[in-house]
Write a structure and sequence with these properties.
With 143 residues, this protein is of the alpha+beta class. The chain is built from 7 helices and 3 strands. Strands 1-2-3 form a 3-stranded mixed beta sheet.
Length: 143
């Protein structure tokens, strides 16, 4: 079987080649958008899609979405000046999945006497015993 590159595979089918061309257009638009916006805004904006002559941009927060919506008329003119004719730019706030922070690991304390007895038990077990290794780690981390 002859080795082939991913580009050969993508170019082999009509729908795959259209998908590749669309992805390339989105990447070019993302780079142009990053050049047109100030740094604080360009890092929070991602080109999501291009539907006909309508560009969809996802923004990290509602506050930045308001700023970007205010800049839409000048962005349309800047894109037109760069050769990209757009009718409209839709700005959507991308909602990130909320995950509460993981609670800190519960600190467990072992008394000195228990630590000593566990150490003695670990020493009495065979050296290659998994239980002995686990007990030694427990004694070491608890002390």
């Amino acid at each position: 079987m002859a080795a082939s590159t991913i580009n050969n595979y993508l170019n082999s089918g009509d729908s795959l080649s259209r998908l590749q061309a669309h992805a390339g257009r989105l990447l070019r638009l993302q780079r142009q958008l990053a050049d047109l916006l100030p740094d604080y805004l360009s890092s929070a904006c991602k080109v999501a899609n291009l539907k006909g002559d309508e560009l969809v941009i996802h923004v990290d927060s509602a506050g930045l979405a308001v700023k970007l919506r205010q800049a839409v008329p000048s962005l349309l003119a800047d894109f037109a000046h760069a050769g990209v004719l757009l009718r409209d730019i839709k700005v959507k706030v991308s909602v990130r999945e909320y995950r509460p922070p993981t609670p800190p690991a519960e600190q467990r304390h072992i008394s000195d006497a228990a630590r000593s007895r566990l150490g003695e038990l670990a020493a009495s077990l065979p050296a290659d015993s998994p239980l002995a290794a686990a007990l030694k780690r427990l004694v070491k981390s608890a002390g």
